[in-house]
Amino acid sequence: MLSQRLLEFSLVGAEWVLWVIVGLSVISLMMIGDRLFFYARTRERLGELEPRLREALVRRDYAAAHTVLAGDSLIRNVLRAGIDLIRTGHGPEAVEQVMLSALVKERIRYDRRLTALATIGNNAPFVGLFGTVLGIIEAFHALGQMGAASGSANSFVMGAIGEALIATAAGIVVAIPAVAAYNFAKGHVVGRAKQAEALMRSMLAGLGRPVAPASGQG
Description:
Elements: H1 2-10, H2 15-41, H3 46-58, H4 62-68, H5 74-87, H6 92-110, H7 114-146, H8 151-207
Helix pairs in contact: 2-7, 2-8, 3-4, 4-5, 5-6, 5-8, 6-8, 7-8
């Protein structure tokens, strides 16, 4: 009884699986576009940011450092959280903790949608393979109904299997850009986080330096 019901389900065919793959492809492309736009909008411009920030920190001019860090990006948001706390008189330990907390929040924001993208990339080939299996089951069931000796039956089966294999190919086509985009995005986020950590350490080290005495003091 159960096998008969499963056979009836299998005979629905693989076309609906192809529509599922098309839907996954659209979702994947939307997520890739969203992340690319977000990363481009929040690009760091470290070549401009780092020298100006170091200059302000050497002078202990935290108002200028805050101005340098204006804007929305992972590094700017993390370091600005530390600068804001320094300006209220907190010590290096508190500043480090608040920047680490800000870094965690930024990582969550930058990693958003990547898990779903990886899920699509990893499972799209299996969805396509499922469609292929359904198509082959339908083809061989039709072959049994038409009679294996019939030449037209053989032609029908070969055509049906060819169509079923399209589902596997479609699943692979969806998976490749999704996995590539996921790997690129994860590497991009990790790189930004490492740059933020390096600047955090540099800023915290500067807090421990004694302030040079003003000229004219004994």
